[in-house]
Each structure stands twice: as C-alpha cells, then as structure tokens.
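Bumping with the actual sequence this time:
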Amino acid sequence: MKKFIRFTGNFIFGLFALALLAYIVSMRFLPERLKDIVGYQTFVILTDSMEPTIPVGSLVVSKNVEENQEIAPDTIISFHVDRLGDDVIFTHYFKKKEVDESGKERYYTQAENADRYDDYKTYREDILGTYMFHIPYAGKVVQFLQSPFALLELGIILIILLIHHLLWNKFDREEKAQMELQMAENANDLVLEAPVSVMEQTNEIPGDERPVQTTEAEDAAFKVPMEADTETEEVPEIPYSAKDVLFGYRTAASSGAFENSSAGFTLTVGRNGILRLEVHKKKKGSTKIAVVTLRKKSINKIKRIMKDSVLVIQNLPETLANGYSVGTGSFFIFRGKEVAAWNIKRNNLKKTKLKDYEYYKKYKKDMQYENDVLDIFKKVKNVLKEEGIKLNLDSVEIKAEKQS
C-alpha cells in the first residue's frame, strides 16, 4: 500500500511538473499556437498604470477577441503597442473608437488614473483579448518560471523523477529472460513477423552499396526536373497503394491529383526500403527512371522521422488551402497519408499578419500546416541526400553507381 501511495504521488507530481514545463515552453516558443488552442492568453503587468484595479506583478488572463465581436467602452483590453520601435503589450481601458485620417477605425485607450487618452495609435488587429481576471503576484512567478534557470531546474527535477522511477521499479532481468525462454519453448508455433531482408527484396548481397536498376545505359547520374521529358523506354505505370508508402512525393504542373496526363515526377519510399522514381510525360503513361534499395540505416531514420511526427501527420488535412487552386501541384505521402498542396511555400506567420491581416486570418492554420509539411519533407530530404539522392520540391537527382 505504501508503495502504491508513493508511486501515485510521484506520478501526479511528475505529471504536474511535465504539464507546467510544457505550458512554460509553449508560452515562450509557441505563444500563437497555444493561444489558438486554449482561447485565452496570459500577460504579466509590469507597471502601475492600472493600479489599484490591477497591481504590479499580477498575471492577467484575457479572452481572445472574435473577428466581429464588438468591444464595449470601459472594457479592459490587452493590445500590441509600438513603443520606440519595440513591440510591447499593454493592458488598459478601451474608451472609444473613431475613424482616423487613414480611414481606419482607431481604438482610443487610457490607463487607470490618466487624465487623457494614450498617445499611440491602436487598431483592431492590435487587440489581443479582453480582460477576464487577474491573479496578484502570480506574474512574478511566471516571469521566474520562464527564465532559463527555472527551465533548467524543472528539467533536472523531471530527470530525477525518471531515474527514481526506473530504480524503484527495476526487475530481475535474468528471471524475465528465463521466463521468456520458457514461453518460447512452450510455443513452437509462435510466428514472429520480420521485414523482408534486402537480399530477398533485390536478390543482391546487402551492404552499404545500393543496387540501382535503371533504364539508361551510360550515365550514372539522373536529374529529373519537373518539365523533364526523357527519351528512355516508356513503361506502364505500376500502381501503388498509399498505405504501403512510408514517404512519397509527386510534383506536377497542373491542378490535378495523381494523374498520368500531367508532367512531373513521382518518388516513393516503401516500408520495405525500396525507393522508386518515375518521370511523367505530358502524354499518357510514365517512364520508369530508377529503383533503389536504401540502406537499412537510412530507412530506419525515415521511419523515426515519421514516428516522431505522427501527431502532426494525423492533424494534417488532405488538401492544404492557401488561396491557390492551380499552379505547381505538390502531393505528399507521410506514413500512408496523402496531402495535396499548390504553390506550397514556407510561411512567416508574424510578417504575413502585419502585411496582409485578412489573408492571415483566413489561412493562418493552413500556413502552419504548410510549414509542418515542409519540415517533415526537409528531414526526409536530408536522409536521402546521404544516399546520393538530391530531392527538391521541383526536381530530383540520383547519383549512384549502376548495377553491374
């Protein structure tokens, strides 16, 4: 019973510390995503401009403002301020709004005991949220927890808890091994699934060299741009099942999906470690360029990338919307899941928000999804580069010794 109570206490404490660490890290490095998930934001009051209503050092909790939500006068709001070139956040009263000389609605704000409105200009896109409540002195605690020293301290605590748990719950490995051996002897009909070996897949002796089958007869380097139209022997396209593809990428200069009628190329990495590259002509059919067996080390790296990104992949929509429906089509397969995008690019959400707020509001989630897709693509791209395969969004190049 004592062991159970001690374990329960350690588990609850560890869970609380982990949740607290995750919240602090999210607030420090991913504030925008955390805000969208919970619908609230927290701010630390650093000045006495709102005393006595909100004392210095308080932690203010503000609710996100909806797009068309009206804000009543005398509501306390938190908002961005450009103060001598620095982007800071203030929490003051909203008093009124008027159309200024630029034709935009300016929101006039005022501190608690000030006798006039704030000098800086505030517009709707600057407003972060409306005041809900505050916790006195909690802001100082949050400031401390967000410091590098506190993050290090929490990390040490988590490591100590993990070591304690491992030592406290250690078991007799020899006894366990003996039990497993006995179970194996008593279950001769037990079949363990194992991946097909490289030798069975390719009829070649496995090693660091990758056997490459090609339809060319001279050059060992194949560079396939999106507009490629090779004169190699045309072969029928072999259908593949997305569920068998660990990673796949196709590019096409059209708005269609996986069709034979659009130029481009398709690269797939199967769960069995076989990489297959095809270049697509503008007429019906496709041309088989190369089939490569990846080294076990590389395929394990790609599997690890997919495993580490499983939550991100699950949340990705089948089609990424960014305002384009034609142009360069990019089609990805991550662990069997297909994702389509047009004119995909890496996005700077903060700059887009300042430059085109309407576009940001409409596509901010998809812009983040595009960044997530490109992050996974880049990691796999780096692994393939170690294999002599240079993959980009619009081209692929394979450099490998041909099979003798």
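The tokens above came from a reply further down the thread. The longest strand covers residues 86-99.
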